[in-house]
Input
Amino acid sequence: MKLRVLGCAGAEFPHFHPSAFLVDDSLLLDAGTIGAVLSEHEQWAIAQIFITHAHLDHIRGIPMLADNIVIKELNKSLTIYGIRETIESLSTHLLNDVIWPDFSKIPSTHPVIRYNPIVPEVELEVGDYKVMAVEVNHTVPAVGYIVRKGNKSIIYTGDTGPTDRLWDFTDNISALIVEVSFPNEMEKLALLTRHLTPALLATELKKMKNLPPRILITHPKPQHYDKIASELDDLGVEQIELLRDGNIYEF
Output
């Protein structure tokens, strides 16, 4: 399983793109960044997009990708997976023929977008993958995803504050992609917006029976990147690595 980090920041600045993780070139976890990073042919290879929640920095690449496909006149569809609330938000507030065209109806003969609402903790088979959503604690309905391919697996939390259920699935995973948005001094804001700090992450890690071999940190606010990096180092957990856009991993 190959993981390519298209974007892993909690805001947008030069060299910092919003969340998007490409698995084996065709399966995308969140869609904050697509066209700004991927070439034409790389964009055409995307077949499935799993969205954790409806916040703009996790979905904003979808409209432009759909538009690029229509302009190219490709006879292909993107399947957008998400919990019911996320799918409803996308179709009602973004791809609604007001903010952007409703590409679930365009072109009429073969729409670009197909929505596939999913139910948490029901595993789906999608090609070579098994994917399961698990609810997490955020300000809007949100899930993390467990993606399995053969004997390899990753967990991606999306955005979450302190949570519980997701950690029940961390045994024998290859990597955990977990958010840390703020430095410790901003814990009050982190809890209010349901995100994590390095100290809060340490508490979450204690909820796991065993730590995975790689703990990849995503979603830091770029203005606080160096402070967060220092505080993560202070945790003394050797598996932790703070992500940067463009990183590629093989599991």
Observations:
- The chain has six helices and 14 strands.
- The mean pLDDT is 97.
